[in-house]
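Reviewers asked in the last cycle whether our approach scales beyond single polypeptides. To address this, we selected a multi-component target totalling 595 residues and predicted its structure end to end. The input consisted of the following lines:
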Amino acid sequence: MMDRLEAKGVGVWLGGRRVLTDVSLTVAPGEIVAVIGANGAGKSTLLKAMAGLIAPGAGVVTIGGNPLADLDRRALGQKIAYLPQDRTVHWPLTVGRLVALGRLPFRTRIAGPSADDRDAVADAMAAMDVTGFADRSVTELSGGERARVLLARALAQRPRFLVADEPTTGLDPAHGLTLFAQFVRMAALQRAVIVALHDLSLAARYCHRVLLLKDGAALAEGTPRDVLTPEWLAQAYGVRATVAQIDGRTVVLPIEPLP
Amino acid sequence: MTDVVAGARDRGGVGPAFPVLGVLATTAGLAFLASILVGPSGIGLPYGTDAARMILVEIRLPRAILGALIGGALGLSGAVLQGYLRNPLAEPGLLGISGGASLGAVIAIHSGAAAAFAIALPAGGLIGAGVAAITVMLLAGERSGPLTLILAGVAISSIAGALTTLALNLSPNPFASVEMLFWLLGSLTDRSLLHVWLAAPLIILGAGLLLTTGRALDALTLGEEAAQNLGVDLKGLRARIVAGTALAVGAATAVAGTIGFVGLVVPHLLRPLVGHEPRRLLPASAFGGAALVLAADMTLRLFAPLSEVRLGVVTALIGAPFFLWLVIKTRRELGP
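The resulting structure, written as structure tokens, was:
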């Protein structure tokens, strides 16, 4: 289909080690897709491949049918925003300047920021509730505040596909929920979100589909109801888990490691 | 490293509205004018005699132009490398290019070529810088990050340093070794318009290349992966940085020898004034470097006109205490 981000039979080798084997995932506009799995299962690698940051050794990643490798980096940055797991910021920029970096793929070399650029930055900062500290230095913020600022940078790209690697880690419950409310708004605007997660209850509640990875391969893929079952979780994570319905919402509760 | 930077952060409330670039450009311009008007011969404008005119055009003008260009090249390249490596302790010498240029010039002196014709000395420096830059690129390999580039640069620096001392050690006579040593200390004394014609085009070309890296350096604030996502081609960026530094710093070292600390201190000092933004730091560091080298050279001419104190020694004497101050400041801010 025209506007999909598709990984087909993707295999990735890093430093001679095979970290991803024959993984396929299709993400359509309006979808929120969770990529879950134990530490080292290959979630980050898959996300990087789908953001065009790693060229897969096998298979292909396409956007609207075109291989990512055929697009130049700026064109890619206008369509896909990638939010790394690593939240290091190397210089103490102000929050406003940092969020504005998200507009770099749209800026020409000479001209200053356009009205679109300013709007996108203001919207992104408002969405992530960071407008209040626009003039503060990023290094003065708490970990959770910094995480929101970095996400605002990715939102400022106004991407058709947001690829976010564990964006909720370190966020308090309220801001974690705000984040997913933002993902839902994006999905309503026919944008799509691919998110690596460890919080399985968030995956159950907000994501349309879930891809469960184990040892670099797809173990299961489908709706949260199909994938987030005690059986699959036992296989993927080695835990005994309870999946319960509370107030009509699915809650996934890991109980104990399996022997 | 980020903590050190954060510790050195400006808290004086100098906002982006402060016309840093204008102030620095004016300072550099004034230093340039002063450099032409000031000297041990006491000649100033208006000049009367042919001799005075000769001193202005043949002696002071080349010196002022070279001082501005070389200081600008060192400051700019330092700012680019600190941004690329995301390390406030990076400096132009890190890539091995100044080491290569020094070796080339010393070989020119050692072989006697420099004594035979004047242009051989800077030409040797340029060849040395070019060979060093190409070797660093080949050594660093196709798909490598900043770390491999530094390692390659350090390796080339060490080899060039070893061969330079070997040349000194085997020097044909004491005069040659003194000449080599003095050249290595860095100086603008007795440089002619010929040196300007040789170095200026290369420095300007290199500076032009380095100035194109600003946006990429801004993006690198978020790390390499986020930078790529924001449209940065890391391979092309690295090539532009090595080529730009080879041209600008290579040519600077080839005509003036090693002038240390400018590329390290100037970007470091100016960073808080431009809100720590790598892109805005580039032109600021170019003007700041020009002003610093011109001022150091003028100090030298006014206060020690007849002594053999070299420019590179003066910049080091300014630069080293600056680092002491930085250590004390950082210790106080991070201390209990």
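Chain B has a mean pLDDT of 86. We regard this as preliminary and will revisit it once experimental data from Aim 1 are available.
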